[in-house]
Amino acid sequence: MTPADDADGSHARIFVSIASYRDPETAWTVRSALQRARFPRRLVFGICWQYDASVDAERLFSNMPKPLFEGQIRSVSLRHDQACGPQWARYLIQSRLYRDEPFYLQIDSHMRFCHDFDVILIEEFNDARAQSPRPILTTYPPGYTRLGAEGQPEVDTGIAGGMIATRLYPRSFGDDGMLRIVGRAFDVAPSRPVPTPFWAAGFSFSRGDWVRDCPYDPNLRHVFFGEESVMAARIFTSGYDCFAPSRVVCCTKWSRDYRPTFRENPGSQSLTHLSVRRMRFVLEASDGDVDDIGDVGRYGLGRVRTMREYQQVAGVDFRKRSVLGDEPSCEKLSPMPALPPSITNRVLNLVINGV
């Protein structure tokens, strides 16, 4: 651990990845994180700003908080008409802004946090690590409705009132052949993180090793749906296990009515089509010629578990585009297929000798 990691007393740095497309809630998201963290100096932000400088600058940046130290808020900026979707933005954050901080928190640009969320995340992570050596905390967080300064009091009140955590479930396949998932609150708050085969791009907390083992694919552009299924499969086959946190640590703004999206730009249909085919290729669900897809290399599946195992655990069939049987249950998902001893020993060694 470096001296910078220990700035708040033996608390490792958390890199916070935020892909923002013309979203005025971004500033309030950063403000919430800094105000609600017990150790705000442990946070480092990487933001991909995609905006129209002629009309967006004031509403995007006027409410941005000042960083607590030089380099706490890193950014890369694109014109809004250069945006290629969230996967491309998150790839830029990983490749240009991330500097091997011990923990990686990926969130949406419209979030509000609970008090001491940074400490709670580490506690939840350690609870999940008791079940798997390579855990990732992920879910669709509960929603908030009020914008700007009014969003934080709404979330504070909801969490104080006993808001229950959520977990991911498969819903159905869309016309594009990609799985749609939903978040549902637990009937009763669990006592520890609960295994889930699914992954949410808008809330994911893990060791930074995840970025090395499952980096974003720069070739997936002008697409929205499919990101989470592909990453979930890559995560699982690389030997990681996803868990729904047992506590609510943040809320998200689900409505898009207040902001534009990258879809306002006329994207390349050929790139969209190729990206979808590339994702289906990774999911071993190709239904046509794949000669122009090429070698996906490090952006493909891992070698620790198989895609067949993943589909059995998740209860979905990507080739047939079907959700199989009942919704996944805790009993069906736990325990996850075991990791080979060589992988387990290597990861445990990192845990013992790392942060």
UniProtKB/TrEMBL annotation:
Q: Which PANTHER family match?
A: [SKP1-PROTEIN]-HYDROXYPROLINE N-ACETYLGLUCOSAMINYLTRANSFERASE (PTHR34496:SF9), GLCNAC TRANSFERASE-RELATED (PTHR34496)
Q: Which organism is it from?
A: Plasmodiophora brassicae (Clubroot disease agent)
Q: Which UniProt keywords apply?
A: Mitochondrion
Q: Which InterPro entries match?
A: Glycosyltransferase
Protein name as annotated: Uncharacterized protein
This protein's source sits in the domain of life called Eukaryota
Q: Does the keyword field hold Mitochondrion?
A: yes
A Pfam family cross-referenced in the UniProt record is GlcNAc
